[in-house]
Each structure stands twice: as C-alpha cells, then as structure tokens.
Amino acid sequence: MRKKILIGLGVIILLPILVILSMRLTAKSQTVGAVTANRDASALKITEVTSATWKHPETVIGKAYKIEKNKNDKKLVHVEFAYNPADIDPKIPETALRLYKWQEKAENPYWAPVKSSVDTKRHTVSADLTSFSILAVHAPLMYYWPESDVVALNTYLASLTKKIPEYSCGIVIIVGEELIEWVDGEIVEYYLRPDGEDVETRDCVHREGSIYPSIADWQSHQREMKWGPKQSRNTQYTLDICIGWQTDDKKSAKVDGVVRDQKGKPLEGITVIAKKITYWPTEEKVVTKEDGSYHLDMHSGEYKVTADPATGGNGKHKNCASGGYTERFHEFGEFPNDIEGYRHGPWQKDITLQCADYYIDETVTLPVDATTYGIRTQGTETQHITGRLLKPTSGGYGWEGIWEVDQRFETKTKTSGSMKIMGGVINMPSGSATARDRFVYQFTLSRGVKAGSTFAIVGSRAGDGYQLDTTIDAGGVQVSANGASASWNIGSKSNKSTADYVAVTQTHKVVSVSGEDGLIIELPAMLSSKLSQVPIKRISE
Asked: Containing domain of residue 314, as a range?
C-alpha cells in the first residue's frame, strides 16, 4: 500500500515538471498560416503578405510570408512551408519545388532561389535561413515555359545523355540559370543562379582527384517569351547545362554472400549473375562454392543479382526456384546531404532460394506427321522441360501449389506432296525446316487432384529462344490445270525469322497420380498432334 502511495505522489510531482518542459519546448517554435519556424514569436516575426507587390505573382504556390528577426542571434532559423499539391500545375513535379526569396533591396528586385529540400509525403519545403525577407514556394521558371519550349529542352537533354561512356556509374549535371527581363528595351530585372546551387549529382560521386569525361561543354538553350500582356515586355531565360559522366573502371564494388535454401542449407553449384541495369551495362557471373559462398567484383552501379539453379555447374538443385535482389553498389564517394539508402562496401548479401521436394526435368521426343491440302509434313519434336514449385500449398503430398515451367522446343521437319486447288494440281518441291521455340508459364495443382483433373497454364509463347529456319530444296514447281501444264525452277531458298512474345492460355490435364512419389501431367506441344506427358518427380535424398 505504501509503495502505491509513493508512486502516486511521484506522478503528482512529475506531472507539473513535464507540463513546464513541454511548454518550454513548444514555446521555441511557432506556426503562422502555412509556415512553421523553430523560433517563438519573441524571436521571429512571421507575417502573411496579402498584396502582390512582387513581380510575377502567378508563379507563387500558395501564399508568401515576410519573415523578420526580432533578436539578433547568429543561429540558423529552420522554416518549413506547407503547400497544397492541388495548387501546383500538373506539369510541375513536386520534387522541383523550392523556396524563393524576394530580393527587395536589389536595384531591380527579383525572386532568387534558396537552398531548400522538399518532402513530397508531408508536402512541405524546408530551409535553414541566415537572412530574411519575403519568402514563398516556387518552381524554377523553366516550368512556366510554353509546352513546346519544354519539349525542346527535354529533347536537348536527351541528346546529351544518349551516348554513355564505358564503366559509367553516375552523372553530374551542372546547370547555370540566367534571367533577363526588359521593358521597351531597358533591363528591369537580372538574375544569375548563385554559385553552389547549380550541381545535381546522381548515383555516384567520382573519386577525389579523378577526372570524369564530359560529353558536352557548356551549352545554352535560350527562349524569348512574352511575360504579361504588354508587347514590349519580354523575358529571356537562358539555361546553361554541362553533363559529366562518373566512372568506375576498377571494379571497386566487392560483394560477398551465401546462397542457402529456406531451411538454411548452403547450396553449391548455383550460378550467381549480376546484371548492371543503369547507365553502362555489364554482367558478372560466379558459381557458389561447397559452402554456398560467392564473391563478386563489380563496377560501381545498380545491379539485378540473381541466383539461378538452372544454369548451375552441377545440376544438383533442379528443385529450387531462382531468387535474388536489386541494389545499388557504389564503393566510393560521399553523397550530398548524406542521402539515406546509399551504402559503401564491402557488402554482405545472402540469398535464400525456395527449394521444394519435387521438380520437373524431362526431355521428350514426339512425332510430327500432318497433311494439309495434300502437303505432308513429317519429322520430330524434341522438348526439354524444367519446372519448379514456386509456392507450395500446405497439406497434401507436397507437390501441390504454384508451378513455374520453362519448356523449350526444337522441331525438325520435311515437306513433300502435291496441293490440289480449284481443279488444278501444284507439285511442290521438297523442303525442310528447323524451328526453336519456348514456353514460359505457370499453373496451379490443387489439393485433391486426380487422374483426369484439369488445370490452366498462363504465360507466354515464343520470344526469347524462338527461331525458324526454312529451306526449300532446289527444284521446279509443276502446275497442271484444265488440260494444260506449266513449270518453273525456284532454285534453293532459305529464310530465317524470329517472333515476339505471345500470350498463351491453355487447359491441360493430370494423367496419373502416384501420391508422395509424384504424378504425371500433360503439357503443350508445338507441331506434334500428341501432347507431352511429363512426370513431376520427388527429389532423391
């Protein structure tokens, strides 16, 4: 009982202290309209500016505020301007917003950008101020150009970045911005972007002292436009752009990891493939060791890394589905403002693969024998089919769930015969063809399926791996009709073609079920009239 009383007294004593501390903390900040500052009203005065005394009021997003210091201290003042996305022109990205300060003491007052940052989730623009005036949220003037000028500028930028140098891992864009406005031939406003606010860096920073190649010297893009109703009032906006590529030809990024199955068992003989997906493309490959470990030396950049059992050196893991990750590996440099999410090596990246107790790995040969309009096609169709259980369904025998299948075809055929059409006969010369094709699709085997049960496959046919070689043997085509005949020699002709991806949806059936030992299913064919019957096997321990 005494302990409870003491605790109660402690709470009673602490509450006023906490309230006082809270009041002191909150007293150090203030909010006026859309602006929040880390100074109270005794230190900082914030006033909404209701009259548009500055030039180009249409470019202000939301409202402008005059900020004045009441106390002469040297500490930075942090301000945060809230904005409403509905007030922004749809052509202007929120990421382009910044604070602008009205330079009212200049001989020709103008809006000048302040170093600031945008939070697109909270819809705020914030900055640390050392000098004070009227401030407002703006976008750079280029966003107020006519659309045709914006298209011209984007086309120009695209031409500068079209050719990517070897080993590129990032880009530096240096922008110079100049605004000149005049009325009746007399300059009334001049603005030049301040030093230190003209560099945009993406992805990686070059090594200290290194030289990165520039693919464009300083370039100008000028447009003269009307600003306001008066014919004599004009604004010339010049954007000077220099683009420099950042490179890493040393394979500075070092990545180590271990490939395991979902139970933690190391997997040997898995091929780990790292494909660079930004800027200059390249690829690195390595096969995991006995302990499942791998090591990659890579050029800095963003990569898609895949652990692929299908291309492994020992073929032990037919029952495992591929997996991996996408990440940025930049070994050198520091990023401006310590951008979150960028790390510098070495990296440890382990990969977990889903490995089931069942798999498909079968080679099937089917006959091709078909006659169309008197032309007979004969040959063989060879299929190599691999499949993995991506997402098992709990319960059942263990092979139930979502399967992914890669089915590759090679069909070799010869043609012969005569075509009868409209009372005539065309004797065709013999020909041969070799076709390679590929199906990539998924299907689901549900619990309780039995012989005769059906399932749908959904995926794509052709595309990667598709190729058709057709050869017609040297010889003549003979035509006879209405008691007359004709012939001509077509010589030897060869044709090669490929195909784009084509969506495929088919329904197939379960041939037989052997319980825990697996089952046999029916899968597609390309030219054969027979369908392939493929076993789903249990992996041997």
From this structure: 253-353
Closest by CA position to 508, among listed 496, 493, 520: 520
Please give the radius of gyration of the chain, using alpha carbons only, rounded to the nearest integer: 36
Q: Which of 81-95, 130-144, 193-207 is predicted with the least confidence, judged by mean pLDDT?
A: 193-207
Neighbouring C-alpha atoms within 13 Å toward the C-beta of 104 = 10
Of 247, 268, 303, the domain-final residue: 247
Q: What does the DSSP 8-state code read for residue 263?
A: T
Phi-psi region for residue 229, left (φ > 0), alpha (ψ -120 to 50) or beta? Answer: alpha
What single string gives the DSSP state of each residue in 61-97?
EEEEEEEEESS---S-EEEEEE--GGGS-TTS-GGG-
Residue 11 included in any domain: no
Residue 11 pLDDT grade (very low, low, confident, very high; cuts 50, 70, 90): very low
pLDDT, greater one: 409 or 106: 409
Instruction: Give pLDDT, residue 230.
Output: 47
Q: Does residue 16 sit within a domain?
A: no
Cβ burial 425-435 (10 Å sphere, 16+ → b, else e): ebbbbebebeb
Q: How many Å apart are CA 505 and CA 120, to the nearest integer? A: 42
Do residues 222 and 173 make contact, with C-beta atoms less than 8 angstroms apart? no
Q: What mean pLDDT is predicted for residues 242-263?
A: 86
Task: Provide the number of structural domains found in the chain.
Answer: 4
Among 141, 173, 207, identify where a domain stops. Answer: 141
Virtual CA dihedral for 310, 315, 320, 321, nearest 10 degrees? 0
| Residues 436, 527 within the same domain | yes
